[in-house]
Design a protein that fits this description.
Blueprint (H helix, E strand, L loop, with lengths): L27 E5 L8 H4 L8 E5 H5 L2 H10 L1 H7 L1 H14 L3 H11 L23 H20 L8 E7 L19 E4 L3 E8 L2 E8 L3 E8 L1 H15 L1
Antiparallel strand pairs: 1-2, 3-7, 4-5, 5-6, 6-7
């Protein structure tokens, strides 16, 4: 008897990906985790680099496209501050991409947020400019990547509602104490750690991720285990009966 294949699951919505859906936007798509554009061409075109992908619906994946562009462009200054060599690689890619109309629009929007005054009203030294960050868009992309990583690690769908914490840490010193408990022997993973690496730690009903981008900054995220949701549903049903 032929072995039955497991259905493909979209890691972003948790639904089965049909082979021939009536709606073309619900067809399957291999999504890079993290996005492919985060690896500049001079890195991803090197031989031997096998970037990780997971299945999504085209519609689910496409909903993040503009925010991923924003993430890549907007967080470049943090790379400049922390990792000069990688910043040079990213800059060459951004300069190449600047020829695209949508990139010019994005850069113009970012430049309009520039100011020489802090939120507290303090004037910055000459030559230093502060740019506003859309935290919602930043976190939206970081959570998408986190869910892709968790799916790869556990082969389970993590609903967005299961996210219990997310924060951007611009330096290792900013990582909260609760995320610093790393079991012995747990090291960072990643197809190309100079661009993206992560540490996954599981304790009790929580999965914690420390995701480092371009060797410059870290997004810390924590998700409640999906199994906890199922147990809560069972407990609620039993109490109701």
């Amino acid at each position: 008897m032929a072995r039955q294949r497991k259905p493909k699951i979209c890691y972003l919505c948790g639904q089965v990906i049909e082979g021939k859906p009536a709606d073309p936007d619900m067809a399957g798509s291999r999504d890079h985790v993290p996005p492919k554009q985060f690896y500049p061409p001079e890195i991803r075109n090197q031989p031997g680099i096998n970037l990780h992908t997971e299945w999504t619906h085209k519609k689910c994946n496409g909903a993040y496209k503009l925010d991923e562009e924003y993430f890549y462009h907007r967080l470049y200054p943090l790379v400049v501050n922390a990792n000069t060599s990688m910043a040079n690689v990213v800059f060459r890619d951004l300069r190449r991409r600047a020829k695209q109309p949508q990139t010019r629009v994005l850069v113009s929007e970012l430049l309009r947020t520039g100011t020489t005054v802090t939120k507290g009203g303090i004037h910055l030294p000459p030559g230093i400019v502060r740019f506003e960050i859309d935290k919602y868009r930043m976190q939206r992309v970081a959570l998408k990547v986190a869910r892709g990583v968790l799916y790869a690690e556990t082969r389970r769908y993590f609903p967005l509602d299961n996210a219990v914490d997310i924060r951007l840490c611009e330096s290792p010193d900013d990582v909260p104490e609760g995320y610093r408990f790393i079991p012995e022997g747990t090291g960072p993973k990643g197809a190309y750690p100079a661009v993206f690496s992560y540490i996954h730690v599981e304790w009790a009903d929580v999965h914690a991720l420390l995701m480092c981008y371009w060797g410059a900054f870290v997004f810390c995220t924590a998700f409640q285990d999906p199994a906890k949701n199922q147990r809560d549903d069972v407990d609620t049903t039993q109490r109701a009966s």
